[in-house]
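User: Teach me something about this protein's shape.
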Amino acid sequence: MTRFALTLEFDGAPFMGLQRQSHGPSVQQAVEEAAEAVCGHPVIMHAAGRTDAGVHALGMRAHIEIDKPLGAFRLREALNARLRPDPIAVLDCVEVADDWHARFSCTGRAYIYRIANRRAPLTLERGKAWQVMQSLDAAVMHRSAQALVGRHDFTTFRSAHCQSASPLKSLDRLDVRREGDMVLIEAEARSFLHHQVRSMVGCLALVGMGRWSEAQIGEALEARDRQALGLNAPPDGLYFVKATYPDE
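Assistant: First, the predicted structure itself:
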């Protein structure tokens, strides 16, 4: 068996999430079925993250093992041919060592959240960004976001369905900036809790609208209570950007 690392780009809108689901299509199922069609045996895909329904990816890392003499280039081309018309693309494919694991070897994950801050309806960005019509102060959002950087108990920003053993996480970076009508929130950490990024973005949006004070972000964090969460942002604007590994 040969192990290959894949870099995936996908539109999460048609899927119930990355991980296989019993009640609908998933990115994992689509890739596994494409790989099985290529190599003629069942394939299991392991990914660096488990994105929710509607969440997108610019560079999700994953790995599969195949028992067929195919080079990385031919495998990438064959998978892309089989994945059509699903909105999934294999951007890169490389052979890796047998002990390289897309999830367990990963030392960092990065997300970006896109808020379309305008009153006009979305056309090209529909389903690809969260539309907030009320004016947002990105500078205030950035300042308040720094209260979340560092190692904290993120219970307030954690889904009730989160399966992580502990709410303690180290958030390495949480930056907010404006580019025209788009407000961009970038988050980096070794790992995240379920809904953590969307929950942080929702509360930062409340600060940007003036509905929350800057201090309320820190107060919500200190509460360690999901009931203190102000708003959970929708999945539309969330993108998995990249996963990092020690040897890269």
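Now, about its shape. The two ends are 23 Å apart (CA to CA). The CA atoms of residues 65 and 193 lie 28 Å apart. If you'd like, I can walk through any region in more detail.
User: That's plenty for now, thanks!
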